[in-house]
# Entry
Amino acid sequence: MKAAVLREVRKPLTIEEVQINKPGPREVLIRTAAAGVCHSDLHFAEGLYPYPLPAVIGHESAGIVEQVGSEVRSVKVGDHVVTCLSAFCGRCEHCITGHLSRCVSPDTKREAGDEPRLIETQGPMNQFLNLSSFAEMMLIHENACVAIRKDMPLDLAALIGCSVITGYGAVTHTSGVRPGETVAVIGCGGIGLAAINAAAIAGAGRIIAIDMVGSKLNLAKHFGATDVVNPKDGDPVKQVQDLTNGGVHHSFEAVGLKQTAEQSFRMLTRGGTANIIGMIPVGVHIELHGAEFLGEKRIQGSVMGSNRFPVDMPRLVDFYMSGKLKLNEMVSQRVKLAQVNEALQELKSGELARSVIMFDA
# Structure
């Protein structure tokens, strides 16, 4: 199969022929239909987060089940599925207490002595985040995908696999936004737009979108933002405080920078919660003023939207089909696998919401 391989950080991906194994007892072989190009892919490609190489990267995808292992019960051949990098074992403390996205059990991976899922002529090829979506096929644990209704377009379903579940879940699960509360979202890329959309669905009273790109702010209004703030016009914290009489109940940082993480905390009202969704580079420290905590303000991380994806993703599909979830507007362009490097480069400009690789193109 053809796959986009990362062999060296800060170097272009190479399109290569990679072998894929047959499904083990609890594994699923999926023909990839579409894969979103996410900022997280860029972080790993540039070495901001270390990963064993070579690897087939990509982690936001949807496809059709081709084969299943002998013990697979959750999906069957022909099912349309969305994948999720937060594969879960179902047995650890995190899983049995309902925190599937926290699971780090090795049970969803092949053991060291087993044949690898992906192979190249020189030896094993590393699988990326349980998935490796920038490839024509994926071989994954059954608890890394969920079946969805077949009338859902797969190119849009792919977005649910990372950006949408991450932004939506941060609002609904991690922070628990309630009707009437105020929300600020820093960064209006795919994850930020999904958070804005989720806040609107949750009934937030005021939703403030923050970005330095005017076109993204205009898009944010379509996703449910009631107000927009451009840091070019002045301190975004002060702008948010002026709009909300002192600060918001919930803030969501979807950029991954020290400065914006600190701003997300400072723009809270008393008792507010800042949620860090963006991937702050390894080794970077954020600074907070201790006196701020006297106002019972909180700052917390959110991993993949604290999702329970086997339940959440089919519901998000239903939200889209009923017109509540906006996905069409999130796709900036559809590209071929051979254009993956251009799509990664365009993420740096900050102009596009999402590029989607189409495997039938």
